[in-house]
């Protein structure tokens, strides 16, 4: 069974089967921060036996082994794809059953390598430290988008990294929008918010006058529903979320 990966600098990402986009937009499978790259720049079509690259009529073009791509092309091991300033190497490997099972355990959905969350988290921290808030936002949204259709527990590396990135953004920008995303994510996934996260949220609220959106209300309702359905929801968490909603969530 063939397995395709993309090597970008020091990181390697597993290509998932299906169709995945590359571009500047935060909802792309692979988000690249480069002004030469279009919002939706290129698309990989991946199956068991081949990977096809398509240029999405990008502004500055997609190049394979130095030649500009016109339409689609089948890629092979060691091919070099250039999108903007990024040079991406195609790596083809064979996985046995044990390796495949291990890869599945390390993957949450759209082809996320186990190192991906920590790499994105580090990029968010670096961007925030340099005052590049828009760049940090794009990275954080790319990470949370990885969770959109994935069924993972609250302590999964991607879940923990995504929540941490959102709270950091709230702290640095003094914007409650990012805390709203934290609560909406927990509500959608049915997660029990970890004690350290609620403490981080409370700390961020020292500089935030209000949390807009419906995330707080949604999560408070989700906790009540889970408790009614027999989920062990800590009473302290119920109280803390209710208090935050009363103080910061109501209009």
Question: How many domains?
Answer: 2
Strand residue content? 15-25%
Largest sheet: 6 strands, antiparallel
**Silhouette:** elongated
Summing up helix and strand content along with how strands pair, one would put the structural category as alpha+beta
- H/E topology pattern: EEEEEEEEEEEHHHHHHHH
**Helix percentage range:** 40-55%
Which ranges are low-confidence, i.e. pLDDT below 50, for 5 or more consecutive residues?
Answer: 96-114
Please work out how many helical segments DSSP would assign.
8
Count the strands? Answer: 11
List the topology elements.
Layout: E1 2-8, E2 11-14, E3 18-23, E4 30-31, E5 42-46, E6 51-55, E7 62-64, E8 67-68, E9 72-75, E10 80-83, E11 86-94, H1 97-105, H2 116-129, H3 133-145, H4 157-173, H5 177-189, H6 195-204, H7 215-228, H8 235-249
Parallel strand pairs: 3-4
Antiparallel strand pairs: 1-2, 1-11, 3-5, 5-6, 6-9, 7-8, 7-10, 10-11
Short description:
By secondary structure, the chain is α+β, with helices and mostly antiparallel strands.
Task: Write a structural description.
- The protein is an alpha+beta fold and 251 residues long.
- It folds into two domains: 2-94, Sandwich (Tumour Suppressor Smad4), CATH 2.60.200.20; 101-249, no CATH class.
- 42% of the residues lie in helices and 20% in strands.
- The strands form two sheets. Strands 2-1-11-10-7-8 form a six-stranded antiparallel β-sheet, with no helix packed on it. The chain has a five-stranded mixed β-sheet with strand order 4-3-5-6-9, with helices on one face.
- A hairpin with a 2-residue loop joins strand 1 (2-8) and strand 2.
- Helix 2 runs antiparallel to helix 3 (133-145).
- It is elongated and about 60 Å long.
- The termini are far apart.
- Mean pLDDT is 84; it is low at 96-114.
């Amino acid at each position: 069974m063939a397995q395709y990966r993309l090597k970008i600098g020091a990181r390697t990402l597993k290509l998932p089967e299906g169709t995945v986009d590359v571009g500047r937009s935060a909802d792309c499978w692979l988000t690249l921060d480069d002004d030469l790259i279009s919002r939706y720049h290129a698309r990989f079509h991946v199956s068991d036996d081949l990977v096809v690259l398509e240029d999405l009529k990008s502004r500055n073009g997609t190049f394979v082994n130095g030649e500009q791509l016109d339409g689609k092309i089948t890629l092979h091991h060691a091919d070099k794809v250039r999108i903007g300033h990024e040079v991406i190497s195609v790596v083809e490997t064979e996985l046995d059953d044990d390796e495949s099972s291990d890869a599945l355990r390390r993957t949450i959905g759209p082809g996320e390598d186990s190192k991906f969350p920590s790499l994105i988290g580090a990029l968010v921290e670096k961007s925030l430290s340099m005052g590049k808030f828009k760049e940090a936002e794009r990275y954080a949204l790319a990470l949370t988008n990885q969770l959109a259709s994935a069924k993972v527990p609250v302590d999964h590396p991607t879940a923990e990294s995504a929540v941490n990135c959102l709270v950091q953004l709230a702290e640095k920008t003094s914007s409650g929008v990012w805390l709203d995303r934290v609560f909406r994510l927990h509500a959608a996934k049915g997660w029990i918010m970890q004690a350290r996260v609620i403490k981080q949220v409370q700390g961020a609220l020292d500089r935030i006058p209000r949390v807009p959106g419906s995330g707080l209300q949604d999560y408070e309702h989700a906790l009540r529903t889970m408790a009614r359905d027999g989920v062990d929801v800590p009473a302290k968490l119920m109280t803390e979320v209710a208090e935050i909603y009363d103080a910061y969530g109501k209009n």
